[in-house]
Protein: FAD-binding oxidoreductase
Organism: Microvirga mediterraneensis
Amino acid sequence: MPELHSDLLGALSARLGAKHVIADPAGMESYLVEERKLYRGTALAVVRPGSTEEVAFVVRECARAKVAVVPQGGNTGLVGGGVPHTGIVLSLARLDRIREVNPFNATMIVEAGCILRNVQDAAEKVDCIFPLSLASEGSCRIGGNISTNAGGVNVLRYGNTRELVLGLEVVLADGRIWNGLKSLRKDNTGYDLKNLFIGSEGTLGIVTAAVLKLFPKPKTRVTAFIGCASPHAALDLFEGLRQTMGDELTAFEFMPHFALDIVLRHAPGAVRPLSGDHAAYALIEVASPDPDLDLRELLEKALGAAFENGTVEDAAIAASEAQNAALWHLRESLSDVQGLEGGSIKHDVSVPVSDVADFIVTASRACEEALPGIRVCAFGHFGDGNIHFNLTQPVDMEKPLFLAQWERFNRIVHDIVHAMNGSISAEHGVGLIKRDELARYKDPVALDLMKTLKRALDPQNILNPGKVVALEGDLPPALPMGKKG
Amino acid sequence: MPELHSDLLGALSARLGAKHVIADPAGMESYLVEERKLYRGTALAVVRPGSTEEVAFVVRECARAKVAVVPQGGNTGLVGGGVPHTGIVLSLARLDRIREVNPFNATMIVEAGCILRNVQDAAEKVDCIFPLSLASEGSCRIGGNISTNAGGVNVLRYGNTRELVLGLEVVLADGRIWNGLKSLRKDNTGYDLKNLFIGSEGTLGIVTAAVLKLFPKPKTRVTAFIGCASPHAALDLFEGLRQTMGDELTAFEFMPHFALDIVLRHAPGAVRPLSGDHAAYALIEVASPDPDLDLRELLEKALGAAFENGTVEDAAIAASEAQNAALWHLRESLSDVQGLEGGSIKHDVSVPVSDVADFIVTASRACEEALPGIRVCAFGHFGDGNIHFNLTQPVDMEKPLFLAQWERFNRIVHDIVHAMNGSISAEHGVGLIKRDELARYKDPVALDLMKTLKRALDPQNILNPGKVVALEGDLPPALPMGKKG
C-alpha cells in the first residue's frame, strides 16, 4: 500500500476508531459484492463513520488524498451503483437515528442509515405512514432510497422517493456540509439543490439525513384481483378507476397469465385468486384515511360498471385484511419465483401510461419473434407506466446460452422503449450496469449537462466515480463476476 | 449604440422579422416596468421569437455578442425577476401553442408563452384539471409559472408548480436546446435536470415548453367559511380535517378578522359569511372526482366534531356552486382591497405547518410592539405554512413615513421566520427584491452551491444576470422607482 494511502487510513482510524476502518478481506467482503452477485469490487478499506461530522471528515481527507469515496447504504441496489472500483467504501449504516417525528407537520427527520422499515414503523407509531414500500424494505436504508430515487408499489398515489423528501443534509465533494433540512411545503429561495442530489446515486454528494413527508394513515383499504382479456383491457380499467376514484386508488399492479402461473406453481402459500384463467391480471388497492367511507361499496360499483362494458372478465374483492394480504402475496412472490424457471433477462422500463398496453404487446411480440419459446414475464407498476419487462428462458434451452443473449434483448426492448419516448431505467437507476446503455439512448445535450454538473460539484471526480456518467479517465464498467441473470 | 449591438439587432431582425425586434421606447415600455411599478429597467431591445428554434437563435447570437438575455412571460411577477438592467428582453409570448393534450396519460404539452387560463381551459375540455391557480391566471404565462415555481391556492392538494411538471424543453446559455419533454411518471436515467431549471427564474436556462400533469376533474366541491377563536384553533381544525379527509381537503386558507373586515368594507359584492365576529377565519374546500360521494355530509360531520370540542365557533357551508363562489370571492378580493387602507409592507414567508399559528401570533405581537397602531393582515395558504404577512399602516400615519420602515419590518419578520427554520420567500421567488435579503439568511454553503451552478451552466453570466444570486460584476439591485408599497 502506498504511503499516502496508509497515511489516509491512519488519519481515518484516529478519528473514527480503528474498528470502524476495515481493511481485511473478510471484513470487507460483504461491501464489495452486490446483491445479485453481478459485480465484485475492490477497495482500500471500508469506513463506518458514526455522524455527519465524521462523514465530512472522511470525505475531506479523501479529497485531500485524491482517493475515491463510494457511499453505501444497505447495499441492496440492482445496478451496481454501490460497488467500489478503487478508493474507500463509506458505509452510512451507523447513521441510523431518527432525529425527529412531527405528526403535526407531517414530517420526520431521519439519518441516511435508517433501515426503511424502521422509518415506516416510526411513522406508524404516530398514526401516519411513510408510504415508500419496496421488496428490500427490511434491509435497504433510506439514504440509498433517496440517492437512487426509489420507486415501489405506492408511487401511483404518493410519488417516487423524490416526492417524499422535503429537505436534505448532504456532505459535498470537498467535505463541506450543506444543511438543507427544511421542513417546509413551500420554499422559493433559490435553486432546487435538493432534487439535484436525490437520484444522483452518490456521485454529486453524500446524503447524511433527510426530512421526509408523512401522510395520514389509511383507515380502510380494499384489495382486488381482477382478470382481464388483455393488457389493453387492463388499461381501460385503470383509466376508468382513476377518473372516479382519484387518489383513493393507491396501487394498480399488472401480472400476465405466465406470472400468476409460476407464482401458483412455486410460491409457498399462494392461493388461486380467480377460478378461471385470464390473459392479464390487475392487482389493485383503494384506501382512504376516512374510516366512514365504504370503499368496498365504491369499488364494487366501479368494477360492476367495468364488468358490464366488458373491460373486466372476473374479479375477487378481499373481504378482510387477511384476504388483502393473500392477494398482495401473489404479487410480492413474483420476484423470487422467476429464478426457478431458469435464466431471466431483465428490464426496468417506463413509457407514458397511455402507451403501456401497446408497449407490452409490441415488445412481447418482438421478443417472441426473436426467440421462439421465450416466456415474457412483463409485470409491475402498470399505473405508473413502469414495467419490469423480464424475459424467462425457453423451457428446453441451456441457461448460459439464453443469458448470452442479454445484450441482444436489451437492444430489442430498449429500442422499442426509446421509440415510445420512454425510459430505460424507470426506478432502479443507472449505476454501472446501465451507464453505457444510457450514453446510447440519452439526449446528448442532457448527457453533456450531467457531465457539466458532475465536474462543477465534484471537480476531482472522487464521489462514486464511474457511476451514472463516465468522465475521461473513468474505468470501464466493472467486469461482471459471471453471466448476468 | 455600439456597432456590435447594432450588428446583433440586425441579425435578430433578419431572422425574427423586424416587427418582432422592438427598440423604440414606446414599444418597449410595458416590458421595462413591472406590475407593482417598483422597478424600471433598461434594455437594448425587446425581441419576440416565435418558436423554440428562434429562441435558441436569439440566445446563441447574444452569447456570441456577450449581451444579456432577460426572459419574460406575462410580466406579472412580484419580485422584479423579469426587469432588465441591460441586454435584451426575450418575450416568450408568441410561443403559445398547446402542442398536445392527452387525457389518457393525464398530461399536456404546452409552450412557455401559454396564458395559464388557456392551459386550465384546455384541460377542462377533456374533463381534467390543471390545478395551478393564482390571482394573475388570466395574464401570467406558464413559462413564468414554471421558472418561478409558482404556488397559489391549490398547493395543499396538488403541490407547487414543480410537482405539476413532468418534462421540459429548455434553451441553454449557449443556445443549445435541451429536449426533456418526457411524459413519464418514473424516469431514473441520471440527474434531475428538470428541477434545476424550475424555480431558477430564467438564470440557468430559458424554458420554452413543458409537459404538465393533469388530474381527474372534481365532480363535487364544497366550500366552507369557518370562524375560530384564534390561529391556534384554526391549526387544530386543519390537523383534524387532514387526518380524516386526507386529499379531499383541497384548500385551507386563513384570514384574520382585520382582513375580512376590509373585504366587507371595500370589495364590491362581498357578503358577510357569518353573523358574528371571530378572531380567525378559515376558508376551506373539499372536493372529489367521485360524483357519488356526499362531501357535504362528510364535512358537516367533521365540522360538527370540531364544533363540539370548541375548535370551531361558527361555520357556513356553501349549498351551491354560487355560494362556493361567493365564499371564495371574500378571499380573492383581499389583495385588491389592502391598498385602500393605505401603505402596506409585504412578506411572503413560510414556516413548518405545525408552527404557523405560533408564527402569526409571535410576528404580529413583534410588529404591534414595534409600531403601535400597525394593522397586521396575515393571511394566505395556512395549510402549506405559507403566510402573506402583510402590514397595513396605522390609520393616522402618513403613508411615506410608514413605507420608509420597510427594511425595519423586513428585519423583524424575517428574523422570526429564520429562527423558526422557515423561508423568506415561500412562493414569489427571489428576483431582485429579495436577492440581497437571501444572501443574509441563506445557508452560506447553499449560496455557494447556487453560484457554482450558475457559473457552470451560464459561464458568461448572460441569462437574467443579477437575479437570484449576485456574481462578481453584477449590478446592485435596480433602484426602486419610488417607495415600495
Observations:
- The radius of gyration of chain B is 23 Å.
- The first strand of chain B starts at residue 21 and ends at 22.
